[in-house]
Design a protein that fits this description.
Helix 14 links the parallel strand 11 and strand 12. The chain is of the alpha/beta class. It has 2 domains: about 240 residues, Spore Coat Polysaccharide Biosynthesis Protein SpsA, Chain A (Alpha-Beta Complex); about 220 residues, Vaccinia Virus protein VP39 (Rossmann fold, 3-Layer(aba) Sandwich), CATH 3.40.50. The strands form 2 sheets. A 7-stranded mixed sheet has the order 3-2-1-4-6-5-7, sandwiched between helices. A 7-stranded mixed sheet has the order 10-9-8-11-12-14-13, with helices on both faces. Helix content is about 35%, strand content about 20%.
Length: about 500
């Protein structure tokens, strides 16, 4: 072990998770090496609503008071819930890396330099401090035989199902780069102990670099709060669910990470998705030589098809990645905020203005839709689609008291306005547009169960389409409209 630790300019934090750790917390903090105290920006203790004086013990720690922050939960957030809070704090504070340390001293604070070093040197996205790299040392350190056997057995099962090659899934001594933590939907993970397995599966999905280092095993006076049987069953169930996700049989939001390239979202489009429906209807009208303005194009799934059909495309997007990856599809492309549409230097008017999955993000959709009219030629078409908040999935969630937002889809966490069919039509009418043609897309079942994309299941797609058309308010995922300006044209 190196005698001196260099943070190399990185902002580092130590997250100390404590529950009923009054007797051991001061000793644990005191065992953190002096060079780590000097290198880190903050050591923050989260007392998970302890029944003893854990918070007092943290506040009473006399050394390094300028670097200690203490939180006390009013309610017990559980093991996974505390990690969500702790890692979000690291992200919000702007740290580059964070290590979770248990407040009861079970995991050696003396090993912090070794845990942090791969993160500081950008050699890892995640560091797993493992007691099982040298398995006999775990027994020598006092690990009970039944825990030793269970650890090996569960790890083998989880490795087999996940495709990982970990020496141990069940260490609570972990380090993460916040760059990695920002990429994964932490909120989708369990609040319970198998959070640790789920974040490893997310690391596998994200292609994160995982480094394992050996640590000594210590079992002393600390109290174990884990129900071993329940924990083991949850770990196996999580691994099986991840295996089904990897096989494409189901799609789980927990592991449905944003692709490395936005263009990958174009793959596997469903026949009756909102993108596919818009493309088919526009191609049926003819787009060769037509000028199309694509506002908020993202992965450019629609633009790709229109470009192939000979349309002349201009595009606006606020995401530099979207511009970099898909800009070659457009004659002119602007990195711009669509809320300030009048600031974009358009080169003439357009035959088609495309607003696919964008209106719900506008700060003032009434003003935005009103201003678009002057950019459309006489007889031009406005095509818009928005998620249907009256969809059965949202209704059932609300019925059970849930309104969980996600990074995309009907309940995107960036959505400012929610629409069902009549409210969307009313919005368009109030801004002077006439809805001439409307359509809907069904629940994206292939995205949820990718196995159904196979040819053998194609009749189910047509059945789903029929059901959606019969009960659009209940089963539609997206509402799609083709509009004209009645003040300029009587024909679509």
């Amino acid at each position: 072990m190196s005698s001196e630790f260099d943070a190399k300019g990185k902002r580092l934090g130590i997250f100390v998770l404590a529950y009923n750790a009054e007797a051991l917390l001061a000793e644990t903090l005191g065992r953190i090496p002096a060079d780590i105290w000097a290198a880190v920006e903050v050591v923050y203790v989260i007392d998970d609503c302890s029944q003893d004086e854990t918070t007092h013990a943290a506040l009473s720690f006399s050394e390094h008071k300028d670097k200690i922050v203490v939180f006390r939960n009013r309610l017990n957030l559980r093991y996974g819930g505390n990690q969500k809070f702790g890692y979000q704090y690291a992200i919000d504070r702007g740290l580059d890396a964070v290590v979770m340390l248990h407040g009861d001293g079970q995991y050696a604070p003396e090993m912090l330099p070794e845990v942090l070093r791969p993160l500081v040197e950008d050699d890892a996205d995640m560091v797993n401090a493992s007691r099982m790299i040298v398995k006999r040392d775990a027994l020598r350190g006092g690990m009970p035989l039944y825990k030793f056997v269970a650890n090996i057995g569960l790890t083998r099962i989880e490795n087999a199902l996940s495709g990982l090659r970990m020496s141990e899934f069940h260490s609570g001594y972990r380090g993460y780069s916040t760059r990695f933590l920002r990429r994964i939907p932490l909120a989708e993970n369990s609040d319970e102990w198998h959070f640790d397995s789920q974040i490893l599966f997310q690391a596998k999905t994200a292609g994160a670099k995982i480094v394992e280092i050996p640590i000594p095993t210590h079992y002393g006076d600390e109290v174990c709060h884990v129900n071993g049987i329940s924990y083991g069953l949850h770990c196996i169930a999580s691994a099986m669910a991840f295996a089904l996700h990897r096989a494409g049989i189901v799609c789980l939001k927990r592991y449905d990470l944003r692709p490395a390239r936005l263009a990958e979202n174009r793959r596997g489009s469903e026949r009756f998705s909102d993108h596919a429906i818009i493309v088919r209807r526009l191609l049926a009208r003819g787009v060769r030589g037509r000028r199309v303005l694509d506002v908020g194009f993202g992965c450019a799934a629609i633009a790709e098809k229109l470009h192939e059909a000979g349309a002349s495309l201009d595009g606006i997007d606020i995401n530099p990645t979207a511009i970099a990856e898909n800009g070659d599809l457009y004659d002119n492309v602007w990195l711009a905020d669509a809320n300030r549409i009048d600031d974009v230097p358009f080169k003439g008017k357009y035959d088609v203005i495309l607003l696919s999955d964008i209106v719900q993000y506008m700060v003032d959709p009434v003003d935005f839709l009103s201003r678009l009219k002057k950019h459309l030629v006489k007889g031009g078409v406005l095509v818009a689609s928005v998620p249907n908040v009256a969809n059965i999935r949202v209704r059932l969630a609300l019925l059970t008291g849930r309104f969980r937002q996600h990074h995309r889809g009907i309940l995107s966490d960036k959505t400012l306005h929610f629409y069902e069919s009549e409210t969307f039509r009313r919005l368009l009418r109030s801004t002077g547009w006439r809805v001439d043609v409307s359509d809907v897309s069904g629940v994206p079942i292939v995205r949820t169960v990718p196995l159904l994309a196979r040819r053998a299941f194609r009749p189910l797609a047509y059945l789903g389409r029929a059901i959606t058309l019969c009960w659009p308010n209940l089963f539609a995922s997206y509402l799609i409209v083709f509009c004209t300006n009645p003040n300029e044209s009587d024909l679509l």
